[in-house]
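hey so i finally got around to running the thing on that chain from the lab meeting. sorry it took forever, my laptop kept dying and i had to restart like 3 times. anyway pasting the input first so we r on the same page abt which one it is
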Amino acid sequence: MEQVVDLDRAAARITARIPRWREAGLMVAPLTWWDRLAPWPQPLQTDRARVEVPASLGLQLSDPRTGAELRVVLFCGGWADVDYLVAGWADREGDGAVGTFPAQGITSADDFEARLVGWTGEVFGAEGGANR
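ok and heres what got predicted. didnt touch it at all, straight out
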């Protein structure tokens, strides 16, 4: 897999936002790393030092007050899997709205951060600390 996005730089961008998210009442799970060189099955790691060649970086945010969640897995190849649950928006089953955000063509850690700000704003609103 070609490295388009520097995952360490993306992790630094995420880490810089964590205090604001926590101040806004969000819970932040430990970042997860997937090592492309690890033997199969490749486990997720929370300790970056245990990952030789990172292929992906995972982030999970949740709001315990509303039940809203955002899960992002950024791949070094320039795309991300982005899933969300927004509590309080009823779907036909009566649960919160669930879905995915499109996330292809990510060109850098800066590009990823800008998209992350948008995703957190969509899921948690301004009170989620995304725009501060």
